[in-house]
Amino acid sequence: MTRPPTAAQRRVIDAADPVTGRLKGTESQLAALVKRGLAFRHPRPPHDHFLTPAGHRIREEAPAETEAKTETQGAGGPATTGVFAARVGGEESPDAGPSRAREVHSAWQGLLELRRMTNPDGAVDRPCAWERTHLVQAAALALEAAGHRPAGADPAGADTEGYRVRATPQPEAVAVRVPDTEALRACAATLEEAGWQVGEYTEPRTRVRYLLASPRRK
Fold first, then answer.
1. pLDDT attached to residue 66
2. Which residue intervals make up region (Disordered) (predicted)?
3. How many helices (H) and strands (E) does the chain have?
4. Which of 14, 48, 140, 182 lies at a CB distance of 3.0 to 4.6 Å from 88, suitable for a disulfide?
């Protein structure tokens, strides 16, 4: 069961800069938020602390909502780590309601801020180091944030149409598959706009079209 932030931690999160996510607090409070994955310490002086995508999501939740999620976990409900998880496609009955839309928007804004703070030149138009080590999640977040629908499975086990993002044997490359050609190309345009290099390919055996996407470096 994941504990909600303490009252003191919640005050620090709520007081974060609304644009940058910059935090102010005691060293122990900031260190605790970093340990829980809700903040990160900038590697360059003055080494300020900023909210992670998960921290941005917590800030947008009402305290009662956070506590309710924890109580649900304690009652045997779905476990969560408190860290945002992008829909990569294939999840059972993926939530597409207003609360999910808010979470996705918050996570994407947090990721853009992470790019600004960790790319050497402060660029937000290309992926950062975190995305290069979380390729599938990063590509899926870019797609979901742009309004693309992930593939899902209904309670009977039947697949619903949508994108699927999967790892590949190639370094720094993910595969994106969408049943519809027009939707596949729309996904390619979204990833390119988000700073990814994208190519369209055909599987030799099945003749199915798919995308290979890699984070752009320049």
1. 42
2. 41-82
3. 8, 10
4. 140
Helices within 42-180 (DSSP H only): 53-60, 63-74, 98-118, 129-133, 135-145
Domain with CATH 1.10.10 in the chain: 1-83
Of 129, 136, 128, 148, nearest to 190 by C-alpha is: 148
Element (H, E) at 187: helix 181-193
Global confidence as pTM: 0.65
C-alpha angle 90-88-13 in degrees, rounded to nearest 5: 130
- Which amino acid, 180? D
Angle CA(139)–CA(146)–CA(78) in degrees, nearest 5? Answer: 70
**Packing angle, helices 27-35 and 7-14, rounded to 10:** 90
DSSP E strand boundaries for the chain: 22-23, 39-41, 49-51, 91-92, 152-153, 159-160, 164-167, 174-177, 196-202, 209-215
Tell which CATH architecture fits domain 1-83.
Orthogonal Bundle (1.10)
For 161-170, how does the pLDDT look when each residue is reduced to its tens digit (9 = 90+)?
A: 899 999 999 9
pLDDT band with cut points at 50, 70 and 90 for residue 188: very high
Mean pLDDT is highest, among 49-58, 93-102, 177-186, for: 177-186
Q: Tell me the per-residue pLDDT of 49-68, one tens digit each, with 9 for 90 and over.
A: 988 877 887 877 755 444 43
